[in-house]
Design a protein that fits this description.
It is a single chain. This protein is low in regular secondary structure and about 35 residues long. About 0% of the residues lie in helices and about 0% in strands. The radius of gyration is 10 Å and the shape is elongated. The protein contains no helices and no strands.
């Protein structure tokens, strides 16, 4: 995982809105919220 080759467009996931790039944890919680 972590490869953009799988999908041409990055669709927001319910667990990860922007993915690890946005600073979201695997739980789906942002580090700013912790």
């Amino acid at each position: 995982m972590g490869t953009t080759a799988q999908a041409p467009v990055r669709r927001p996931c319910p667990a990860r809105p922007e993915g690890p790039a946005a600073g979201a944890r695997p739980d789906g919680r942002f580090e700013d919220e912790a």
